[in-house]
Design brief:
By secondary structure, the protein is mainly beta. It has one domain: Sandwich (Jelly Rolls). The chain is 0% helix and 45% strand. It is built from no helices and 9 strands. The two termini are 22 Å apart.
Length: 135
């Protein structure tokens, strides 16, 4: 007897470690290639070290659905321009208010994309986690 994806209940969590990255260096980390259509229920970032926000030089974490290649659907963002981050404390990102942005299809690739404004901030090692339900 085997279990099929459609038989799973509740939220499934997919996480990816993020390597420490120098200020000003953009990085995009694939989280998961979905084997099924899903409804995103939560996206969290857990920095491994404290982050001191800076209004002129900061990084932005953008959770994206790249589709089956270079898509650009933004599911959630978090900029370190005004609020500090606490080491090992999960931060739940505010999800897109557009419902279709949170409904990736089978085969879509979800990523964590870190970009910089000004000279940026160093990105500490951490974890990005996506929770979703199969639809």
């Amino acid at each position: 007897m085997s279990v099929q994806f459609k038989e799973l209940r509740g939220d499934l969590a997919f996480g990816v470690p993020v390597p420490p990255t120098a200020a000003g260096t953009a990085i995009e980390v694939p989280i998961v290639r979905l084997p099924f259509g899903a409804q995103i229920t939560e996206i969290a970032w857990v920095p491994g070290a404290a982050i001191t926000a800076n209004g002129g030089n900061y990084f932005t974490l953008t959770a994206r659905n790249r589709g089956t290649g270079t898509g650009s659907v933004v599911m959630a963002t978090r900029a370190y321009s005004s609020v500090n981050g606490v080491a090992t404390t999960p931060e739940v990102l505010t999800l897109s208010s557009t419902e279709t942005d949170l409904q990736p299809a089978a085969g879509d690739v979800l990523t964590a994309h870190f970009t910089h404004t000004g000279t940026g901030l160093a990105i500490p090692a951490g974890l990005v986690q996506v929770k979703l339900r199969i639809r």
